[in-house]
């Protein structure tokens, strides 16, 4: 039997000839992201803004809009509900209530009274504004430290040019993923931070594979122009890149379709981020090396 091939054994695609299109596209998306961040902002979750999270199991299946209407009469702010697990399981999120701990406890009591008897309360958590601020600060530091660690790793393993190229690709991926959250208004919480860091790690892995082949070809083809060498290196690793991204996207698609509401936002962000992480490995981290004088040949 012959193996299934999605691309030719030795493709000869001219990626570098289209690098300016990619640069313009990425730049435009970054600008739109920053504009929307300052005008519309992220839909920050309770992890960062503070509030109350309740996981409840109702005694019988009830339409979600009925529960939302009932809780909306309590005047507790923007109450969000979503099913998870079975149709009887509901995740309730409340914004931070003004008035300190007493106000939070009063809000919980109102919800319990509105839901009635026979409800099982599996989890009730309160996140104060100070805790939310600390979590936001910790998330920012986590991203910055991951950027620094990855750049140092690439710098040591390859050369400084590769380190800078890898860092630019990481920043690109983080910005575009934030843009996805701004446009879709999917709740941005600690799980979202985990998604961004996972996307960054995936993108780095893909870039390192291409960088390895570039370094090998730099030693093998000493007189080949850089742009041609980069095209050759990407084409030689293209089969691996496509198969890896396809298997990852299939797993994420399964999570999106049947994983439930609780992880759907995470899965959607990962699906989008994996696509753009693959794109940045080919069109950002690799072509940027042309401008770092890896050798004396000029393009």
Structural write-up:
The protein has 299 residues and is of the alpha+beta class. The protein folds into two domains: 191 residues, Multidrug efflux transporter AcrB transmembrane domain (Multidrug efflux transporter AcrB transmembrane fold), CATH 1.20.1640.10; 77 residues, Alpha-Beta Plaits, CATH 3.30.70. 63% of the residues lie in helices and 10% in strands. The protein contains nine helices and four strands. It has a four-stranded antiparallel beta sheet with strand order 2-3-1-4. Strand 2 and strand 3 form a beta hairpin. The longest helix is centred in the C-terminal third of the chain and has 33 residues. The radius of gyration is 24 Å and the shape is elongated. The chain starts with 18 loop residues before the first helix and ends in a 16-residue tail after the last helix. The model has no long low-confidence stretch (mean pLDDT 81).
- Name given to the CATH architecture of the largest domain: Up-down Bundle
CATH class of the largest domain: Mainly Alpha
Main beta sheet? 4 strands, antiparallel
Query: By helix and strand content, what is the structural category?
Result: alpha+beta
């Amino acid at each position: 039997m012959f193996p299934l091939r999605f691309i030719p054994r030795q493709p000869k695609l001219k990626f570098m000839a289209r690098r300016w299109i990619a640069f313009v596209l990425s730049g435009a998306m970054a600008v739109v992201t920053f504009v929307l961040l300052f005008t519309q902002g992220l839909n920050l979750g309770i992890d960062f803004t503070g509030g109350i999270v309740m996981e409840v199991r109702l005694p019988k299946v009830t339409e979600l809009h009925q529960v939302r209407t009932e809780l909306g009469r309590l005047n507790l702010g923007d109450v969000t509900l979503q099913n998870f697990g079975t149709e009887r399981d509901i995740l309730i999120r409340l914004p931070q209530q003004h008035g300190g701990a007493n106000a939070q406890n009063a809000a919980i009591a109102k919800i319990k009274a509105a839901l009635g008897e026979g409800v099982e309360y599996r989890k009730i958590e309160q996140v104060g504004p100070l805790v939310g601020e600390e979590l936001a600060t910790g998330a920012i530091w986590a991203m910055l430290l991951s950027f620094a660690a990855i750049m140092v790793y690439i710098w040591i393993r390859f050369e400084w040019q590769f380190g800078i190229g890898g860092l630019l690709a990481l920043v690109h991926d983080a910005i575009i993923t934030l843009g996805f959250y701004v446009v879709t208004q999917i709740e941005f919480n600690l799980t979202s931070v985990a998604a961004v860091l996972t996307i960054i790690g995936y993108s780095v892995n893909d870039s390192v594979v291409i960088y390895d082949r570039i370094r090998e070809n730099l030693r093998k083809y000493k007189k080949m122009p850089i742009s041609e060498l980069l095209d050759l290196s990407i084409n030689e690793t293209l089969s691996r890149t496509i198969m890896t991204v396809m298997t990852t996207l299939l797993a994420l698609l399964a999570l999106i379709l049947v994983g439930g509401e609780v992880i759907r936002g995470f899965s959607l962000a990962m699906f989008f981020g994996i696509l753009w992480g693959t794109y940045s490995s080919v069109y950002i981290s690799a072509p940027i090396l042309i401008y770092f004088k890896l050798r004396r040949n000029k393009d």
